[in-house]
Specification:
Helices cover 76% and strands 0% of the residues. The chain is mainly α. It has a domain of 49 residues.
Length: 97
């Protein structure tokens, strides 16, 4: 069963491409989330920003980061860990402001 999820063991070029895309989109996910945190903290305002939405995103990202860590899936762990950190700042900003 473990081999089923071991993408790196395959020689398939499409799976290797998918591995690279996961890293790329992991970086994009953080870059696209960062502006919300910057806006909240620089304006010292979270008006019209939903705590329910961002709190849910935070929980989902933390679960996905944990999944990646437990299953030793570095692209998933690294991507979701990084976005979890940004979402923590967003949620804290919403609560404070």
């Amino acid at each position: 069963m473990k081999k089923l999820f071991n993408f790196k063991s395959t020689g398939n070029k499409w799976i290797r491409l998918l591995d690279k895309l996961v890293y790329f989109f992991g970086i994009i996910m953080v870059i696209m989330t960062l502006p919300q945190a910057i806006i909240i903290w620089s304006n010292k305002s979270a008006i019209d920003v939903s705590l329910l939405t961002w709190g849910t995103y935070l929980i989902m990202s933390a679960v996905m980061a944990t999944y990646g860590y437990v299953h030793k899936k570095n692209p998933i762990f690294i991507s979701y860990f990084a976005v979890t950190i940004v979402e923590i700042f967003i949620v804290i900003g919403i609560i404070i402001f």
